[in-house]
Amino acid sequence: MLIQSLVYPGFTTLDLIGALQPLAQIPGSKTEIVARQAGANPTDAGASIMADATFETASNAPDVILVPGGGTPSIDVLEDEATMAFLAKQGESAGWIVAVCTGSLLLGKAGLLNGYKAASHWAVIDTLEAFGATPVHERVVIDRNRCTGGGVTAGVDIGLTIAGKLAGEDAARVIELILEYNPAPPFGTGHPTLADQATLDMARAGADAAMQPDRIRQIASA
Q1: Strand pairing of 146-149 and 140-143?
Q2: Active site positions, annotated
Q3: pLDDT tens figures, 26-35
Q4: Which of 79, 88, 135, 166 holds its CA 20 to 30 A away from the CA of 144?
């Protein structure tokens, strides 16, 4: 079972690792990290992830292709023709097409969400309409073989959900327990519907600056 993950400079570490960790627990699974160039790709957390395949050497027909988001770097990738062409190609044969956070925008630009329900980070979810998708304000959204989710930490939920689809719910329950996935957020402000107005205003200002929703719509219409 091949789990293929796209990476690019500046992507969000937890978008990838949160989803990949549950999937990597499936017996017989293999991970392939793909980037424009093989080697180290820096993340937004200061770590680097090694890509072992390029667009030219990547395996065809993966069981899962996983796309992380990453604020401004992910918006920049929307204008990278080579990356969009790679995603469009892989989307023709992948078993599951999966994205975390703003990674769903990459799927949208590659033409893989037209006519599908999808989720994304709360700051940009409404821009999905510009790519022909129907925004759904939920943590994990499945529409046929597309699975998309909310911001950053939703990757864990996505990984467990897809693990259940691939290995069965019993196996996914065991994986969830092994990972001790039992969230207890200390501040309870992890979604706009939960945060006080002052916290929301500060978060929205930072998110808008990083994710540039107006720019996303312009790219979608180009």
Answers
A1: antiparallel
A2: 101
A3: 999 999 999 9
A4: 79
